[in-house]
Amino acid sequence: QKEDRKAMKDVFFCRYVWEPGAQLTECGPAAERCRRAQALCRKGRGIKRRGAAWDGDVVSDEEHIPEDHATRGPRDRLRRASNALQLSAAPKRLPCRENERDTIENFVLEMLSAPGGDGRTLYVAGMPGTGKTATVREVVRALQETGNAFRFVEVNAMRLPQPNHAYALLWEALTGEKRGADAAARLLDKRFSSGEEQEERVVVLVDELDYMLTQRQEVLYNLFEWPGRKNAGLAVIGIANTLDLPERLDPKVRSRLGGRRGALAPH
Description:
Elements: H1 2-11, E1 24-25, H2 31-42, E2 59-60, H3 69-72, H4 74-84, H5 98-113, E3 121-126, H6 132-145, E4 151-156, H7 165-175, H8 181-193, E5 202-207, H9 218-225, E6 234-240, H10 245-248, H11 251-257, E7 261-264
Parallel strand pairs: 3-6, 3-7, 4-5, 5-6
Antiparallel strand pairs: 1-2
């Protein structure tokens, strides 16, 4: 009797438990509970309970089970919604970002189609959580999947020990070689100053751009100045949360950044 009461607790999580003699069929995530209910039915203790919270119905083999049965339940829909809201979740395509997506895509395509890969700079601003970085990644992924050949390098300034470490990260991404910040800066300057057409085009995303603000702003100046050199084959996209960041830059840095901007408004 004690075992029967324990089995009855297990059965409670099923919405239906069929009378003895009915063939139970495993259904979705309720498979283990189906087996427990089936064992209980063999003992002649089968009952029917209604209104349970579990969304995985226990059904007989006489009842048709749709293939997407497990994905239609309210509990499963809630689970999918919860996973989509996690910070680590990134949808393949962000809704309501068509105009911003077109702006970024046209910017990259113009660099790829320009003679010698004459580069450009783009500043993208918006409140935190509006999908700035995700939109850029989506555009880059879509362009690369459609046969546009270029190297994409992402630099998150918030993760850098010092702003000038961006030189070392960029040089390693382009060549696979590890260099110190000062040595990498010289090598990058030489690469983009050669005047020779580069074998590959490069798109650099500098995220959390405001973390690179220093008194001299030398790193920002170089990053925005290199794309304008002949045959540099380089385009730089800067991302920050503040719309007026360009106005707070040194005039010579602001002149290299240019006036091309994109703003992502909150949904």
